[in-house]
Each structure stands twice: as structure tokens, then as C-alpha cells.
Amino acid sequence: MRWLARGLAVLALLAAALWWLGPYEPAELTAEFDAGAMDRGVQAYFDAAEARFDDITPGVQKRVIWAGAAEQRTPIALVYLHGFSATSEEVRPLPDRIAAALGANLVFTRLTGHGRSMRQYRALAALSDAELSARGLTRQSL
Questions:
Q1: Cα angle vertex 51, ends 47, 56, to 5°?
Q2: What are the distances in angstroms from CA 41 to CA 19, 65, 136?
Q3: Which residues, at least 6 apart from 105, have a Cβ–Cβ distance to it below 8 Å?
Q4: Which of 31, 44, 56, 130 has the fewest CB atoms within 10 Å of its CB?
Q5: Residue 8 belongs to some domain of the structure
Q6: What domain of life (predicted)?
Q7: What is the per-residue pLDDT for 139?
Q8: Residue 139: inside a domain, yes or no?
Q9: What pLDDT is recorded for position 105?
Q10: HSE of 25 in the Cβ direction (CA atoms, 13 Å)?
């Protein structure tokens, strides 16, 4: 048992030394946000952000389900982040029911690339096929 404690201590010291002596890369950790972008309201801000895309599946765009009147804050707001390869509809109506029980506004976001038509994926697949063909390969040869 003593050898296990010593081994763990050595590993901890080694990890601390690597962290202390390791290389550091400068990182810019400041976030910028133009508060004026929200002057017309949260939903208008979301609508403007989503207007850049013409292939969003109806009903999965960024939006707020208001607990009361539109654009009125509540003491609690729930932000729903959907799972991998999913949309805001993944587990509905569960988030709606939780928000209603809490009297909270519910914010549905849409992660980059999610909730869009298959057009972009088909284009990527075609590009991949063209690259494979240029290299003299096929999907089956991989």
C-alpha cells in the first residue's frame, strides 16, 4: 500500500512540474458584445442572426418562449442547449414544461451547423468524392 501512495505522489509531482514548466501560449480571453445590438429586443437579435441562413429547418431557429409578455424578464431563464447532431426539438416538450413550472423564459439556441438542410452536407460529400477521385481513390478503397 505504501508503494501505491509513493507512486501517486510521484505522479502528482510530475504533473505539477509539467504544468509549472510547460510551454504557455498567449490567449486572448476577452469577449466583446455590442449591447446596442439588443436595442430592438432579444427575438429581433436572434432573427437577425438567423437571417444569414436560408436553409434552417422551420421551427428549430433560435427563439425565446416567453413566460409572460414578450421581451419581459423573469427571475429565472432556462437556456436549452441541444445534444450532438440534434436540434431544439430533441426532447420537447420537456424544456417547455420545466420552464412553465418555474415561470421562466425559455431560450432555444441553435448550435453552428445544426437544424439546417442537407444541402450543405451533400456539397461537402461531393467535394470529398471529388478529392478522393483526384487522388485515384474511392470510398470502397478506404
A1: 100
A2: 45, 13, 54
A3: 64, 65, 66, 67, 73, 74, 76, 77, 78, 99
A4: 31
A5: no
A6: Bacteria
A7: 58
A8: no
A9: 97
A10: 3
79 closest CA partner among 49, 102, 50, 108: 108
Q: Is position 95 within any domain?
A: yes
> Which residue type does 40 have?
R
* Full DSSP string of 12-68: HHHHHHHHHHS------------GGGGTT-HHHHHHHHHTT-S-BPTT-SSEEE-SS
The position carrying cell 505522479 is 11
Q: What is the mean pLDDT of each run of 10 residues along the chain (142 residues)?
A: 88 90 82 86 91 87 94 95 83 94 95 75 66 66 51
**What DSSP string runs through 29-42?**
------GGGGTT-H
